[in-house]
Amino acid sequence: MSWLHKRTYTKAARFQPSALGGIQPHHVADYLKWCAYGTTDVDFKDLEQNPTCRSSTLEQDKKAISFYMPIKGATWNGTSGNPTKSDAVNEVVKEVKKAETQHRSKKSCATRDLTETEYRKVVHELYGKGSFESTIRTACMLKQQVHLITRTDDISKLKYSDYKPHPDFPFALSCKVHWSKNISEERQCPDQIILGSMDTDFCAMLGLANYMEASFNYGYGAAGRENAFLFTPESDPKLAPKHCNAAYRNILKAVFLSAPFLAVAVLVAGVLGSHSIRKFAATLARGMGATADEVDIRGRWKARLSGWVVDAYISPEQPWIDAPVAEKLAWVLLLPTSYTRMPRE
């Protein structure tokens, strides 16, 4: 509205539905042109006019504007509806995407996925630090993140009660990830299998066992705290995961900036970040032969239901799909494995 009315509004400003309803598709299209090109007078056929932002930025701006529209769901029909859902607006985004393909736009800041060599280097650098926070806790979180294909904040919110012995396979564990970004209902977070691996760099089960044994010495597993967070001794439901996630990301960032890691990472172009780990897990599973739909289920991406009544009756747990992907994430060079508890002498 500040751009449209050529005046500055504070964040406290409020607008009537009638004022918001007056926004037309050409207003939104001109605003996106101004964001991308610095002017509303744009000739998309002129190759000298190059956008200074990415199409993803425009799509986010478009989404933000759509949030405040009086009619959100309806496509623009020429006289009414949501102006962000119009051909004029979509055309601007389309042209910026075309410019990206032709390398005429701003360079992408999106993080790439780790390579297997880089992942192993991260794990070995964590092992070499010799502290509980890095060698044991962060290494365990990293292995869980790869094995479950999660985000960093999903791992930070895991609790002891989320893990349990698998009901059908005594050599495996099951885990329920409640906090994934795309989960909107309970059916979208079924129990998922955790498998061991003969490759210690990827063995989520061995990393978890080492961590849980060591964590009791640091007060992380105090008695009577079944619902306690797994990777932090804090109990505040809001601050504990936030602090845990920040500590995890900071340690990974330090590794990413270390000289030994940069010597390996310099061989592949692209920016790395914490999201590179989830991309690595998804790419690894796909490269090991899993289909895109199988990776989608393992990673708990938003379900694409048919809308049929039968969907409510079909169990969301699909172990025949989940387990093979878990196997591929544990396999890599060797075979999945199981562990047997040995009696103490």
UniProtKB/TrEMBL annotation:
Superkingdom of the source species: Eukaryota
Keywords of this entry: DNA recombination, Membrane, Transmembrane, Transmembrane helix
InterPro entries with a match to the protein in the record: DNA_brk_join_enz, Integrase-like_cat_sf
Gene3D superfamilies: Intergrase catalytic core
Coiled coil (residue ranges): none
GO molecular function: DNA binding
Single biological process term from Gene Ontology: DNA integration
Segments traversing the membrane: 251-272
Name this protein carries in UniProt: Uncharacterized protein
